[in-house]
Amino acid sequence: LKTPLKQAATSQLVLTERQPDCQPLTTPPKPKETPPADPWTPTSNLKMLIRAASPEIRSREQRRQLSDSSSDVLQTKHCLQEHLLGDEYEKSQPSRKEKSLGLLCHKFLARYPDYPSPSQKSYICLDEVTEELHVERRRIYDIVNVLESLHMVSHLARNRYIWHGRHNLPQTLQALKKVGEENKYIQQIQMIKKREYEHEFDADSERNEEMASSFGSSEQSEMSFVELPGVEFRAASVNGRKYKSLRVMSQKFVMLFLVSTPQIVSLEVAAKILIGEDQLEDLDKSKFKTKIRRLYDIANVLSSLKLIEKVHVTEERGRKPAFKWTGPKVLPNTQDTKLEATSTTCSPPISESIPSKEQCSKALFPSKGKQNFTRHSSLIKLVKSIENDRRKIQSAPTSPVKISASRYLLNFLLETSFSLFLSQMKAEEMQMKSALSSPEVVPKAEPFQQPALSQPLGVCPASHSSVSPVILPHPQSGVSYAIYLHPSQAHTVTTYSPGFMLQPLPCANVTGIKSNNSKVLNKITTEGGDTQRATDEPTKPLAAEERPDTKSETSSQRCLKRSQALQENNLIKRRKSDEESLDTSSTFFPSGYLIPLTHCTHGNKAECSNKEKAGVCSLQHTAYSSPITGVIPMPASELKTVNIPAFHITPLNIMLSPTSIAAAPVLSNSCLNSSSTTSAPNPSSSALNFMLQHIGLIPAGVQVPANPVLQHVPVSSQSENISHSSGSTNVQEGKVSKNTLQLNSWVEWEYGAVIPLQQPSAPKEPQEPQAVTENFFRTPGGPNTEPSLSANSDGTQRISQGTLCIPQRKLEVSED
DNA sequence: ATCTCCCGCCATATG
DNA sequence: CATATGGCGGGAGAT
């Protein structure tokens, strides 16, 4: 049988999309399937029309339906009388859309449970699938390959795959994220954007060479397929091809999302990176096009899995297709602890349950020798990178999963806080010295700062430095969400603008739902400024400075720019020794950090012991929980990279959850108070503040003595600016919403934060800290300012929320 | 015109 | 060798 007889039947059945969710069907009796004939059913026609009318609706609908199997199950019952429909002539061809890979994927996915019970494995027989779904085999491969890249299925033998469902997803994503980080994708992204940016200005010059060269060193981008040992067992047969493009490409694509700060990746950037950054400027247009095609294929599948969602990034260049990650947040895998170099078979296929626990991931290296990659010249590089890759062998935590999250967090907090603190101090000192005179200098010196590449255009500011920002409003909804960006980007954009106005960068605007007016940039800026102005309290002396248009602003911008440029240069130079790239940085503004914490156990306090600041430690112990968004702990490594703000030009809005206020009291702390009062920035105090902020004890900006900008900012009322996006989201999300306090706003910068502060069982009534807190949190007129302490049921551990501020920028993203 | 991306040829891998 | 896989890119539908 060469080609399953599909075409005869093809046309009509395509329309039937979801079938009622079924249980882990191992081998469904094939006959049942024929759903068809629908086109002639009134209902089906209607559906079809609707769908046709609005793709959005359609997809949404599909999802919904898929999710709740409850929806009409009946319709499936159709019988096999496809033969007689005499009107094939008119046979409305399924319209391209009906045949889309995404739709097909939905159908495919509908056949299997997301979480198949470990006990019973479900197998996928390609012949059956192709027949039942009425598609060409080729298409199924596309789907399966992507699923395989996520370890949702694995190839057993010819025609046979095993369905794993989403069980492995967490581990896979974690592994991918890790690899992505090791690959320095963030930097690559920035590099690409930068290059792109420069291109605009003139014919490319040697600049590119530089780039390329610097880039070239980072060859290791070519890694092979990342596996989860437990899953891949049977792979022997297929191993050789594991590295094949679609699979690997899919993994890389996912990695890009996982490492990017706003988890948005434009196709263009992805394509460039995936093509192989080593290809310096091969103006290979066709290659690029092909890559894009593939990415669309992958994206369609990922979209069906609801891991990503299409959006459009608007930048000055125009609208560019992009996708944003809507999948689960990936915990940073702090524990590299056990690197097991599981050479080949990590675990036998045997029990499924086991593998899940002891997931380890390893990279397979196809090269191994004899392989002749006839087609993929690029693969050759693999060989080069093997060495590097070897290191990539990873293992997943053997430890109980549950604990891991909180543990991560705790460790992370404890471990990093101190270092941060120190770093901060140093930084600030340095800063103090040099900054005053010439800010630009500052960054340079810092060893611990990491070089921030500018991301001129492009949507995503991905700087690893920023702690994995969580998107507050759940992205899921597609509503706009706040994206925490690095200020660095901002300046980047501005870099070339003579005026140095702080504009909301093109690259950075994210509007939730398709908000179209793109020109927004300028517009927004202006508006924001104006609005702000109107609303802002008189108080801010600094306000003037902050203003985008003001001189001070300009200067600071300039500084940034300059410094950045410098650092970039350095970066390039140093690139070779890539190591430092991660930990050194220069001019960054601190962006905010969103540190949602899950409540954790106190177990780790030991860690803090070494820290001198007992006070801090004590505070730290508290567990934080973020009811809202979930946890987004960042790996210590990431934290280190975080930079402290040299100049805080940023922010403006603080979003608090009602409960957060309650937390404020907790802060009461000598440090805090002192800080608040202190006008003169004291390095150490500021450092402390910084640390506290990170920890979530203090809302960012509060301490600000160190931070000039925030310092005096009066609290103004809710931010309208954010409202559009956040508003809806919040509502939806429910809890999060907030009272957003606006400190000062530039439209584009906002501090959003949600950090639950722990309230020891007895919520302390706001007392001393009040002053600070009050002030800080007060919502003018805001009704629901009430802090609701979540005194929580299980007691001790719970916490109310506090807030950390994160400067965030909006990217303009429109979704379809 | 650009964005999407389906279709299916045909090289390769596999058994 | 017959098949199973799956690069790849033309070119057409969707916008």
Low-confidence parts: 1-90, 203-221, 233-240, 336-811
Largest sheet geometry: 5 strands, mixed
* Sheet with the most strands: spatial strand order: 10-16-13-11-12
Helix fraction?
40-55%
Chain oligomer state: single chain
Output the radius of gyration: 27 Å
Secondary-structure-derived class: alpha+beta
Hey, roughly how much beta strand do the residues contain? 5-15%
The overall average pLDDT, rounded, is: 45
Helix run count? 33
Number of strands: 17
Terminal-residue CA separation: 41 Å
- What sort of overall outline do the alpha carbons produce when their principal axes are compared? globular
Topology diagram in text:
Layout: H1 6-13, H2 42-53, H3 55-67, H4 95-98, H5 101-110, E1 122-125, H6 126-133, H7 137-149, E2 153-157, E3 160-163, H8 169-182, H9 185-201, H10 206-217, E4 226-227, H11 229-232, H12 236-239, H13 245-259, E5 264-266, H14 267-276, H15 285-304, E6 308-315, E7 318-325, H16 353-357, E8 360-363, H17 380-392, E9 394-395, H18 401-437, H19 441-445, E10 483-484, H20 487-495, H21 520-535, H22 541-546, H23 551-574, H24 579-583, H25 606-609, H26 614-621, H27 636-641, E11 653-656, H28 658-667, H29 670-677, H30 683-695, H31 708-711, H32 720-733, E12 739-742, E13 750-752, E14 755-758, H33 770-777, E15 799-802, E16 807-809, E17 813-815
Parallel strand pairs: 11-13
Antiparallel strand pairs: 1-3, 2-3, 4-8, 5-7, 6-7, 6-17, 8-9, 10-16, 11-12, 13-16, 14-15
This protein binds a DNA duplex (15 and 15 nucleotides) through residues 1-2, 55, 95-97, 99-101, 126, 136-139, 141-142, 145, 157-159, 237-238, 240-241, 244-246, 286, 289-290, 292-294, 296-297, 300, 321, 374-376.
